[in-house]
Amino acid sequence: MTRRVVLTVGGITLLGGVIARPWQQNSAARSGAVRAHLTGSTTSPGNPPHSPPHSPPDTPGHGMRQPSAPASAGPSQPAEVRHPWTGQPMRYVDAGRDAIALTIDDGPSARYTPQVLRLLARYHVTATFSMIGIQVAADPALVREVVAAGHLISNHTWRHQNMAWLSPAAAIAAMDQATEAIHHATGNVPAYYRAPYGVWTATSLRHCQRTGMTPLSWSVDPRDWSRPGVPAIVSNIMRNTRTGSIILEHDGGGDRSETVAALGIVIPRLLDAGYHFVTP
């Protein structure tokens, strides 16, 4: 089944408010948040009092096609910001000239994740894999292979549901279950969270702050989920990538043979163009 939804601007304001306080990289605070996260002692956050400005919707390419939403539901894209995170999803990396990031979503997949891993190893590239918790729990050995190869694992919720359609308690549970599955498989607690379909809600942003996860979005979407053809994927990435870009690709959610083939072309081209890959 194709993992994707077309999101349009509508009646629901997802980003209920800007979290004004910058993210504090404090190890003691992070440890406390992790302990609370894994013991289930977190509480449902309230909604911020006002909405931040949104960037124009650009149809985020992310995963399985959803059933039709109510007419009033229409999330818009998060505002464009740069690292360090100040309350909004991170769409660019700030790691110097020609630094870019590759993110791989919706796995792990027993068929396609190993193929992606072999490509990344061939070109000595590291990436961030946004993994769905239920799939992590089903194949923890493969998740450990990803970590052993030097890649990062990002929380992508338990079942890849549209968070705007869940109650705050259900949304928090979906995030926490995925964290617990990743922790159980790898011994690590994810430092990043990627919202399914690019739907960033006030609840998920607040919970990210509470549990120590940075919200990770993207800036280059080749729409590989729709299987537009290898040349189209390659052309999109090469045309839109620039210093700081975070590229979105998928190793799960359906037939990802085009994605794998495109990565085999685009990675060496980007390297030849002078880019180097970093993790956020």
Amount of beta strand: 5-15%
| Count of helical regions | 8
Overall SS class: alpha/beta
How widely separated are the two ends? 30 Å
The dominant shape is globular
Number of strands: 7
What can be said about the biggest beta sheet?
A: 5 strands, parallel
**Rounded mean pLDDT score:** 78
Question: Can you tell me the residue ranges where pLDDT is under 50 for at least 5 consecutive residues?
Answer: 1-35, 39-85
H-E order: HEHEHHEHEHEHEHE
* Approximate helicity band: 25-40%
How much is the radius of gyration in Å?
A: 17 Å
At a glance:
The chain has 280 residues and is of the alpha/beta class. The chain has helices spanning 27-39, 113-122, 133-138, 140-148, 168-186, 202-211, 230-240, 257-272, and strands at 99-107, 128-131, 152-155, 192-193, 214-215, 246-250, 276-277. It contains 8 helices and 7 strands, in the order αβαβααβαβαβαβαβ.
If you had to describe this structure to a student in words, what would you say it looks like?
Mean pLDDT is 78; it is low at 1-35 and 39-85. It contains 8 helices and 7 strands; from the N terminus they run H-E-H-E-H-H-E-H-E-H-E-H-E-H-E. The strands form 2 sheets. Strands 1, 2, 3, 6 and 7 form a 5-stranded parallel beta sheet that branches. A two-stranded parallel ribbon has the order 4-5. The protein is an alpha/beta fold and 280 residues long. The chain is globular and about 45 Å long.
Which key features would you list for this structure?
single chain, 280 residues, disordered N terminus
